[in-house]
Amino acid sequence: MTLAERARRVIPGGVNSGQRSIPGLTDLVITRTQGSRFWDSTGREFTDYHAAFGPPLLGHNDPDVAAAVAAARASLSLTGVAVTEGEVLLAEQLAELVPSIEKVLLTSTGSEATFHALRLARAVTGRRLVVKFQGCYHGWHDAVSLNVISAPDRIGRPDPTSTGILPEVLDATLVLRFNDVEAVRRAFADHGDDIAAVILEPVPHNVGALLPTDDFLRTLREECTRAGSVLVFDEVITGFRHALGGYQEVAGIVPDLTTLGKAIANGAPVGALGGRADLMEHFSSRPGGPVFFAGTYNGHPDVVAAASATVRKLREEPVHEHVFRLGDRVRRELDALYRRLDVPVVVTGFGSVFVTYFMPGPAPRSYDDLLANDASRFVGYRRRLVEQGVFELPLNLKRSHLSYAHTDADVDRLLEATERAVGAMLADGGADDLRHTSTMGGARH
Questions:
Q1: Which residue in 261, 417, 265, 391 sits closest to 334, CA to CA?
Q2: Helix, strand, or coil here: 41?
Q3: 20-41 as b/e, with b when 16 or more CB fall inside 10 Å?
Q4: What is the pLDDT of residue 133?
Q5: Domain that includes residue 325, residue range
Q6: Which of 243, 237, 277, 244 is nearest to 259 (CA)?
Q7: What keywords are assigned to this protein (predicted)?
Q8: Residue 437 has what pLDDT?
Q9: Which candidate among 15, 21, 290, 296 keeps its CA 20 to 30 Å from the CA of 431?
Q10: What does the pLDDT average to over 103-122?
Q11: How large is the average pLDDT for residues 161-168?
Q12: Which residues are CB-neighbours of 208 under 8 A, at least 6 positions away?
């Protein structure tokens, strides 16, 4: 019996996340990671552009991060009381770097951070409604676990990612079209007195890359300020990967609260919630604070050391310069490749993130635009890439990532493999079985 078969005997589906069971790769077992690569149990080597949905910005098993974790582990373990020097130093760095953060709390995951952000917003405003946007993902909790990757007939109404969510919870979330300024203004005109928070990925990377317009982000800030609602930037993906100050630094828009995760610790399980001090002081981490906040593993010495080492390296070395240069090259040369092959695509992304949509231009601005993407081609060419040892996640609309460990030689290999994979995909017509390749939507409530 193989290890994958043994896993399925004792783990539902054989994996520990619903995003890890990939059609055609259900027997994949990972045995080693290093730099820009991973290896499986059969000895196959893959150049990794999936990158665990984005955390290892420095690359897998970065030696400086590993050394910092080992040093912390030699002197500290989890005590669950008081605070450590590492937590203080990390919090000081986050407050220094991220424009919106005056005070910050650590969590173990990004989902926990967004959960606490919305609970806090409802507590301080006394209001019921939350606004999110179609195509944005903010974690597994009920208030926002809807309308991410939706079928055409599920857009414009609640499309939960899971059963078991109470209808009244879904009814308390308004789902709007990303980049739709007028929809935002209408929502505030109709419901402004009852909107506790607006939450968004400033770049919705859970559907690839929808770049926000300046007018859209500015309108969100203006409407939230006018109505007394809390503006939450979910920078779990964009934070630190796109800039030390997050995408808010790039856009010049300061939210009230910011959630972080993923690239903040190069893969260690950490999240963070920070923002205005007057909001953050409501948490029960301050004695008397009415908004309960707890977590046994919050501020674990291992992950704090990983995060501090990651942030230090991002500040001291040309990480962003490197990944942005490679990202620009990948997008530019992939676009030229598809033009040469006469295949209509949109190659887009930001910084170290890239994605190719199989659809005519222009670049998409909302999830509605992505309905034109040919999922059969999108998934089909990525399955062919995997056969050549180049790994981009073969699920519909998923983005790809570059790291500090990737090189120009890796990019050369990506381009060569992509040309072969697309040729093979065109010859066979793309993926003919798309079951379970479009995730994060469609659960029947």
A1: 417
A2: coil
A3: ebbeeebebeeeebebbbbeee
A4: 98
A5: 3-61+317-428
A6: 237
A7: Aminotransferase, Pyridoxal phosphate, Transferase
A8: 79
A9: 15
A10: 98
A11: 95
A12: 348, 349, 355, 357, 370, 397, 398, 399
Instruction: For residue 198, list its beta bridge partners.
Output: 131, 231
Domain identity same for 121 and 260: yes
* 277: number of Cβ within 10 Å: 11
| Whether pLDDT at 444 is above 70 | no
pLDDT tens-digit readout, 224-259: 999 999 999 999 999 999 999 999 999 999 999 999
Residue 119: φ, ψ to 5°: -60, -45
43/80 same-domain check: no
Task: Give bridge partners of residue 47 from the DSSP assignment.
Answer: 37, 390
Cis peptide before 362 (omega within 30 of 0): yes
Q: Taking 70 as the threshold, does the pLDDT of residue 106 lie above it? A: yes
In sequence order, what are the residues at sequence separation of 6 or more whose Cβ sits closer than 8 angstroms to the Cβ of residue 285?
105, 293
Q: How many domains does the chain have?
A: 2
Tokens of 226: 């006018």
N-terminal to C-terminal alpha carbon distance within the chain: 37
In angstroms, the CA 197 to CA 117 distance is 9
Q: State the Cα–Cα distance between residues 380 and 427, nearest whole angstrom.
A: 11
Catalytic residues: 137, 234, 262
Are residues 296 and 351 both part of a single domain?
Answer: no
